[in-house]
Amino acid sequence: MRKASSFPALLFVVIVAAGLALAYAPYALYGSVIGGLVVLGAAFVVAAIVSSAIKVAAPWDRAVVLRLGRFRVLRGPGVFGIIPIVDTIPYWIDTRVITTSFKAEKTLTRDTVPVDVDAVLFWKVIDAEKAAIAVADYVSAISWASQTALRDIIGKTQLADMLEGRDKISTELQRIIDQRTEPWGVKVVSVEVRDVLIPPGLENAMSMQAQAERERQARVILGDSERQVAEKFGEAAKTYEHDPIALHLRAMNMLYEGLKQNATIVLVPSSALETMQLGGLAGVTAITAALKASTGKEDGAALPGATH
Question: Model pTM?
Fold first, then answer.
């Protein structure tokens, strides 16, 4: 909504005030009331003509001036004058960037899925003459053209592509709308797809599908990990098979870690103690000393015994 300038009204008041001052002179000098009224009436006529002839345009406004029904010129910004009655200004065109929101409701995609799509259009008038003459209401025309283009894009796009490629859809929308609005003197700056709404039932199904896909990937990763672990165990078994000392050291380490962390009774075969040389007093004493050193306690609990 264009805000009218107060400058023409100020000129009207100034001219009328000057007319009152001039109308007082004949009455004061000659006592003529009629002469004063004539001067005052002339001041009103001049003030009305001047105020209607002077126009002020904002930096973003362009005035479309018609002379006797024909396009004459674009005026603005700043102060300019027209010929009253002969010249008219039917349109004031705003040349700033304007935002228009539009949507497509319950529109079927290429794979027959109803969706609701919200988008925002950023545009500006670059040719005020075409915007005023080539189309009756360029704002409504742009809105309808955008909505129609959005429906066309949705009908040609798969739902998956629409959910993943919003930038591509926005670029295509900008190209289509720009082609339609170019004859109207309008330039599309950009188009942004804000939201794509799908039916709740389909949304739940897609969520379950995504969850199942993630579970499948997790199971595949777990199975691959088990395979790698089995391969490493196989390699370790081959190493221990030909190196009994390494096997004894590994068994002692496992026994030590179990006693240190859990502090519980561990039952091991007597044959294992004999092979690891832990059945004697020296072996038990060595493990007990190691446990005390790791826990930092001098008076620790007695080492759980081994059952033979």
Answer: 0.62
Select the more confidently predicted residue: 251 or 276: 251
Nearest residue to 250 (alpha-carbon basis) of 222, 225, 275, 213: 275
- The per-residue DSSP string of 73-92 comes to EEE-SEEEE--TTTEEEEEE
Mean residue pLDDT of the chain comes to 80
Tally of CA atoms within 13 A in the half-sphere of 23 that contains its CB: 17
Q: In sequence order, which residues have a C-beta less than 8 Å from that of residue 167 and are 6 or more positions away?
A: none
Domain residue limits, the chain: 7-93, 98-198, 211-242, 244-308
Residue 222 has which token pair? 């777990």
Q: Are 61 and 93 in contact (CB under 8 A)?
A: yes
For domain 98-198, give its CATH number from 3.40.50.2300, 3.30.479.30, 3.20.20.60, 3.40.50.150.
Answer: 3.30.479.30
Task: Convert the pLDDT of each residue in 134-156 to its tens digit.
Answer: 998 899 999 999 999 999 999 98
